[in-house]
Every structure is written in C-alpha cells, then in structure tokens.
Specification:
It is a single chain. With about 200 residues, the protein is an alpha/beta fold. The chain has seven helices and nine strands. It has helices at about 35-40, 55-65, 80-95, 115-125, 150-155, 165-170, 190-200; strands at about 5-10, 25-30, 30, 50-55, 70-75, 100-105, 130-135, 140-145, 175-180. A seven-stranded mixed beta sheet has the order 5-4-1-6-8-7-9, sandwiched between helices. The chain starts with 5 loop residues before the first strand and ends with a helix. About 40% of the residues are buried.
Length: about 200
C-alpha cells in the first residue's frame, strides 16, 4: 500500500542515436526495455507512474496501453533529456496530485528492479533525505529520488542536462543505495551485445 505521494518519472523519449535504433523497443526475454521498466515502476510503492515519450511516441503508447501509467508526450524531445525531465515534472506538478518527491529513472538500465525502486523510496522516507540516489561502479546517478526541496530544481535544467547535474551540485546531501549492475546501460550495439552475452553465460 502506498502511504506517501512519491511519483515515478520514467524517461523514454530519446532518439537513441548511439544505438542506431530506439532502445525503448529493444527486447530482453520477449519484453521491451520500455515495458520492463514501466512494469518495475508500477509494481513499486510509488503513488503514480509517469512515462515521458517522444521519439516514436505512437509505437510506445501502443506498447504501454495495457499498463496503468500516465503518459506525457514531449514534442521537443530532440532538445535533450533535460527537456523531457522538465516537461515530465511540470505534468506531475500540474496534475493536482500531492507530491512528496519524484523518482527519476530511465529505461536503458536492465538491472533496475522493483525492489531497488522500493529501497530508494524507503530510504528517502525513513531517513528524511531529500536526495537518494543509486550507487554503482564508483559512480552515482539514476534511478534517484528528488524530495520536495529539489523538485523545483529539476525544472531549471537546461535541455541537454540530466538529473545527475543536480546530484553532483549537492553531494554533501546525497544518500546512496547500492545497485548491482547499475553501471550497465544499453547505449550502443556493443553494450547490448555484451549484456546479452553475459546473460546467456549465466543461464
């Protein structure tokens, strides 16, 4: 049961120029990265899940039609991730729902699970920290929870900036949650090939 009003904002609007095809639609074990990520979010204890679409939005909408998510279409997605972030945050804030914070995630981190999302939310609620981020491979980043005091900063990002820029501006206030395999994101065909090869070895 959701006892707080944290929203999840799943960013899935990009061009995926380095991959050579929209990575939202790449499939792993029969499920697209988009639906895998959206399903992980829906099953979490977040109050509501929002998905920001842009590139091939109609195709993405079709994939998500059976899932209880709120869709946001960013017509200016070509400007960069910051554009989708601010567009999504505005939609959340203008929804009329109470907002205790926003958990920002992307769809190209295949090791993100519902359990990890819940751990981020739980840590934020229990500790009172306003910045709770994932830690992996000597790095920090998304998925990350931005509490009330940081939500407005997401609205100030330049179109080409991501949420990580805010995290690095406030490192002394960051609380981290370990994410095994979080350093793996599928940006290029080589990334995908390595991931699938490693997965096949384990199976």
């Amino acid at each position: 049961m959701q006892t707080t009003h944290f929203h999840i904002l799943l960013l899935a609007a990009g061009l995926s120029s380095r991959m050579g095809q929209p990575k939202q639609f790449l499939t792993i074990q029969g499920n697209s990265l988009l639906t895998r990520s959206a399903t992980a979010a829906i099953k979490s204890k977040a109050f509501r899940t929002w998905v920001v679409l842009g590139n091939q939005a109609e195709r993405a909408t079709e994939l998500l039609k059976s899932l209880p998510v709120s869709l946001v279409i960013n017509e200016h997605f070509q400007l960069g991730m910051g554009s989708s972030l601010t567009y999504g945050v505005k939609s959340v804030l203008n929804s009329g729902d109470p907002v205790d914070g926003i958990l920002v995630m992307v769809c190209d981190q295949p090791h993100v699970t519902t359990a990890h999302l819940n751990k981020l939310l739980h840590t934020c609620i229990e500790s009172g920290a306003q910045l709770v981020v994932s830690q992996y491979d000597n790095s920090i980043g998304v998925p990350a929870v931005f509490g009330k005091s940081y939500v407005d900063q997401l609205l100030l990002l330049n179109p080409e900036q991501g949420a990580k820029s805010i995290i690095h501006q406030h490192l002394s206030e960051v609380k981290t949650v370990s994410l095994t395999g979080g350093e793996i994101d599928l940006d290029t065909p080589e990334d995908l090939a390595r991931f699938l090869q490693a997965r096949n070895k384990k199976s």
